[in-house]
Amino acid sequence: MVGLEALSLQGLPIDELLLTRETEDNLADLAGNAMSSTVVGTCMMAALILGKDMLDVDDAKVEDEDAMEVDKTTSAKAEDISAHIQGEKQLVKKSLDLSTTTNCSLLELLTLAERSARLCECEGRRGVTTRVIRRCVDCGSTSCEKCGGRPEHNTQELRFGTDVPPRVHPSEFEKFFTSTFPMCLTLSGVKKSQLEKLWEKLSVEDDDEEAFWPKWRNAVVEATNSEFRFVELKRQEVWSAVYRSPMGSLELALHPKQPEWRLFARAKDSEPANSDLRKVLESTAVARLICKRDTSGVAKPGAGLLEGQWEFALPHRTDLKLTIAGVESEDEETRPALVPSWESKLGLQADEFKERRVYSQLRISVDEDSEACVLERDIAGLYTLFDRCGTANSGLHKKEPTADEVDLPPLYFFLDPLRCADPMEDPYLFSISKIRYEFGETRPIICTLDPKWRQITAVDGKHPTVDAHVLSVWSKSKEVALQVCPILLRVSPALKGDFSNPLMRRMPLSLSRPRTSPSTPPLQDVSTRAQFWSVMSPLRTKLDRNGRGGLG
Ligand SMILES: [Zn+2]
Ligand SMILES: [Zn+2]
Q1: How far is the CA of 130 from the centre of ligand 1 (A)?
Q2: Which ligand neighbours the alpha carbon of 128 most closely?
């Protein structure tokens, strides 16, 4: 057999490969002597096709002499194994409370989160760099010395221990969070009737929105029907904790200035990929709870984090009119009114770009006729351009904080390109977050501008009225509450006999906790392995993190 034949037998497309320089030996070596999945897969398919008549679909119990022998896990066998276990009496019995939360104040948690957050992309989820970290005075982004420089920013070295508190290793924060925080939460009080009341208050007249509403409402109710279980802690510029239910997810973003819970609903699998409902649910949170930053003393288990009034983002579009005008400079030397636009900085030679200048400060106001009350933050004010701080088209503007905004996160105004669309469709928008998002993550948007708007120059500044819109209206609801859900588990006797797996034997077989309130959900009956694991996996995470369990 020549080398090419050996390759061909491995299922490799030899007519598509460019093999000219390799010797026969090289080719034979390339083919190797293992079996590739293309060959094995083909053989298996062939065997299945030939033998399909032997497979009895209706009755799986084929009493055939030629049938392959499969090990049966009989209860007798399981008992056999348990007889080998020794030293059980030496074990100390301890009660395992899986919904424990130790006391901690919200302030303590936020401080720890801030000190262990990621300061440079190169740190990833778990690392802490030893290089010098620099923070931008203008926009607040941080990066290490090696990764920084692009975009330029206006950076200053962060001296830990003197300017800012020393850093904490992320694993320490993870340990603290998982031992302090409940692994299972429920959102009670989300009912159709009650959402309907909120919707009626809006008195929507648009027929399309009326038709869309029931679908959205049902998705929200469905998302909160079952409990949310802890999935992961994500370390990014801010920490966030993710909880999931079959049809939704809860995200706790530990922003040092605005910690908040966001509820996302998931569209059903049967919903078309391009349906409006899917798009809306994927692009915005359906509800949120902005935690009260109650900084007083020791709170009850996560008290400040779970309490407060929930708000729903009712899907109702409001159109606004804004006035955006360039600000003339008082002192041209310290801050020129007009600075080179991104096109001219790039060196584009076309006449319209070559000498293009844009305003370095903008004054934005909301026209009186517009319903400014739908805006969750006051967007009117003075915005400064930070063209050295990145974002698309060097278009990052930051609002100069007013006296009552000192405690709130900074408000940005920038160009946010859409993932797959014509660049002409990319809108400028207002948001408290200017970071880049991964797929599946969403930016909280306060207001979006008409995509036609681009940075203004002295010439086109004469037509400063701009259309803008807000896609949802935040509406408060008193009845909704986030609660710790005690994990109650009763393993059915039938399942016990199935614990022949050594991993399973080490699991606590019954976990229960006294009922704390009438609203406590009933004991969950677990009768299949899949159900058992679906309940146990979040607990396992908790135990592993705490170093208390050894559940495999
Ligand atoms: Zn770095
Ligand atoms: Zn910056």
Answers
A1: 10
A2: 1
Query: What's the token pair of residue 354?
Result: 């070559």
Residues 334, 395 share a domain: yes
**Could you tell me if 309 and 323 lie in one domain?**
no
Ligand nearest to the Cα of 137, by number: 2
Taking the CA of 141 as reference, the closest ligand is: 2
Does 297 share its domain with 189? yes
Going by C-alpha positions, the residue among 526, 547, 521 that lies closest to residue 536 is 526
Distance 301 CA to ligand 1 centre (A): 36
- What is 5-59 written as a DSSP string? HHHHHTT--TTTS--SS--HHHHHHHH-SSPPHHHHHHHHHHHHHHTGGG--SS-
Going from the Cα of 125 to the center of ligand 1, the distance in angstroms, rounded, reads 13
Specify if 41 maps to a domain.
Answer: yes
User: Of 251, 286, 316, which one is at a domain's C-terminal end?
Assistant: 316
96 belongs to a structural domain: no
In this structure, the answer to whether residues 189 and 288 fall within a common structural domain is yes
Domain count, the chain: 4
> Ligand 2 centre from 477 Cα, in Å?
38
- 388 shares a domain with 262: no
For residue 539, the enclosing domain spans 492-546
Place 132 in a pLDDT band, splitting at 50, 70 and 90: very high
What is the model's pTM? 0.70
Q: Do 449 and 348 reside in the same domain of the chain?
A: yes
CA of 157 to the centre of ligand 1 (A): 14
Query: How remote is the CA of residue 391 from the centroid of ligand 2, in Å?
Result: 10
134 or 333, which is more confident: 134
- What pLDDT sits at residue 439? 81
262 and 397 in a single domain? The answer is: no
Q: Are residues 343 and 440 in the same domain?
A: yes
pLDDT interval class at 57 (50, 70, 90): low
The conformational region for residue 11 under phi > 0 = left, psi -120 to 50 = alpha, else beta, is left
**Strands of 155-157's sheet, edge to edge?**
142-144, 133-136, 155-157
Instruction: List, in sequence order, every residue forming a beta bridge with 474; answer none if it has no partner.
Output: 313
Ligand nearest to the CA of 132: 1
Q: Which ligand is nearest to the CA of 147?
A: 1
Q: Which of 51, 67, 89 delimits the end of a domain?
A: 51
Let me know if residue 134 belongs to a domain: no
| Cα 154 to ligand 2 centroid, rounded to whole Å | 6
Q: Which amino acid is at 362?
A: L
Greatest C-alpha distance within the chain? 97
Q: 301-331 pLDDT, tens per residue?
A: 455 678 888 999 999 999 999 998 888 877 7
